[in-house]
Specification:
Layout lengths: L1 H15 L1 H55 L5
Length: about 80
């Protein structure tokens, strides 16, 4: 029951102080937007890294082939 009493008190308080409720809601909305932007940035960064890792095997294969070629070609002195 104490939870219900606190809720009633909060409702009564914000009913009498609507401007404060509006500021509180605006702060929470802004915090949610910032969090969403941060998550979006992180997802984009992860997606870029995944793309880089997808290209890694072909890059490594090319390096291996270049190294093989360098060691198998006759050396000119």
């Amino acid at each position: 029951m104490p939870q219900q009493k606190k809720m009633k008190e909060a409702i009564s308080y914000y009913a009498a102080n609507r401007e404060e409720l509006q500021v509180l809601v605006e702060e929470k909305v802004l915090a949610a937007k910032v969090l969403c932007e941060s998550v979006s940035d992180n997802v984009n960064t992860i997606a870029e890294k995944v793309d880089e890792f997808k290209d890694l095997p072909s890059t490594i294969q090319g390096m291996i082939e270049d190294t093989k070629t360098a060691f198998t070609l006759p050396h000119k002195e």
